[in-house]
Amino acid sequence: MFKRTFILILLYAFTCSSYAQISIIPKPSSMISPANGGTVRVDASTQISVQSPALQNSADFLNDYLVQFYGFMLKSKMSVSNQAVVYLSIKNEASKSSGSYSLVVNKNGINILGNDATGVFYGVQSLIQLLPVVKEAVLSIPYVTINDAPHFAYRGMHLDVTRHFFPVAFVKKYIDFLALHKMNYFHWHLTDDQGWRIEIKKYPRLTQIGGYRNGTIIGHFPGTGNDNKHYGGFYTQEQIKEVVAYATKRYITVVPEIEMPGHASAAIAAYPELSCFPEESTKAPEKTVWSGPATGKQVQQTWGVFEDVFAPTENTFTFLQDVLDEVISLFPSQYIHIGGDESPKHNWKRSAFCQQLIKEKGLKDEHGLQSYFVQRMEKYVNSKGRTIIGWDEILEGGLAPNAIVMSWRGEEGGIAAAKLKHQVIMTPGSHVYFDHSQVKPDDSLTIGGYTTVRKVYSYEPIPKELSAEEGKYVLGAQANLWTEYLPYTTTIEYQIFPRISALSEVLWSSKESRQWEEFEPRLRNQMKRYDLWKVHYGAIDAGM
Ligand code: TNX
């Protein structure tokens, strides 16, 4: 017992000494800093050079960062130069994974060697965290040797731009937050009951009508009623391309989500014939605070789940395929998210057409019909060479053959899918819903829940219920940021920081290397960097 405690103290002392001033999040696989090491001085006269043009992205990112936070940039040198203090290069080794890199700071300067261009970019992110947390004209970079590689292949963050719309400039900023944490997937939730946010040329009413609702925030904020604003917005295809290009330069894949068959009110408001009951008014849920007249279909003004979903008609399938054609041409992502969550079966139950279809196709019930719906869409997406992701409800009634499951109602869906040999992305509400409050007592109006930064840090994406073999189907995890209660960019920042830092480490480092007591001081140091970035962030609540 004594021996174990002693070893633990020694280990802790060691990690403290090597991570005290140098504190990188997510934690590198290995980091050695000499006890009385020197520093490399970096200022406006320092030169940077890249081995090949493909690495210019990374040099540009570093320079943009330096300009923004320290007021100067490095001098670019086109070729290898012995004058260069910062040198970015690649040496590909088959035994190493994509994204792995080494960063060596010593008397020869600052050398980042990536296994590929992605690795070089991650090396730059680690270098950024060696910079001082306050603005200085000459930056002293401590000697260090880092060897690092990502643990999970999918390290994601989601953003809901439907409940509230956010401009391109903020979406880019959000992508930068991901990049700074070495995350590599941005899940863009583009359509829902409260707004359709992506321009589709073939169906202009989707954004003309579906892009706006009557009222900003109804009822949920104390003292607010319907302000009757024509509220919303959408991204043009040019803007979408701009965001995708921006993310690509940061080695981030943008996964678009087009919701079906539920969460479809905005699309149905634009094209009522997509509903089983085109003539009926869209009914608001019972609990709604809004009691205004609903004439015809409407883009929803409140939150929740709505009964008016896509009808499984040929007309709807043609529409969705046309939409996906345009989506696929805009997003190079291998993965296309087709939603699938929270689709009430009430309308399908009372529709003669749906009942007939269930009989004709020999389906068991409405869940079978949802499975039929998703499988048809999957076939189409697969025919374009892409793979679908769906929320875990797509398991009900039979999983589409090649689908990836995003497990949000706990881990059960993910466990079941992995056992069926389907790939899985974990996003359980219990640990990674960043719309929940992160402190107690709740200091802002959130959707509910209590998910502290410590709880996020405790998360392990591979559930213990899975065997080693089954665990391989877990690609990684993602935090979801639903924005019902987050109308402002400041509140979004507040909800993601500091939890994004904890999540990035959960996804980047191995389970064995994580210990809250060791992480917390690094996180406190990181908060000084948040100050430099001028982002809003929550407090550290060590509750579980
Ligand atoms: C459930 S998570 C939803 C969203 C809500 C969220 C609020 C999921 C697939 N669906 O529509 O915004 O809860 O936390």
Automatic annotation (TrEMBL):
Enzyme Commission number: 3.2.1.52
Active site, renumbered: 342 (proton donor)
Keyword Signal on entry: yes
Tagged with keyword Signal: yes
Cited InterPro entries: Beta_hexosaminidase_sua/sub, GH, Glyco_hydro_20_cat, Hex-like_dom2, HEX_bac_N
An annotated Gene Ontology molecular function: beta-N-acetylhexosaminidase activity
Domain of life: Bacteria
Similarity-based family: Belongs to the glycosyl hydrolase 20 family.
Name this polypeptide is given: beta-N-acetylhexosaminidase
Organism: Arcticibacter svalbardensis MN12-7
Lineage of the species this protein comes from: Bacteria, Pseudomonadati, Bacteroidota, Sphingobacteriia, Sphingobacteriales
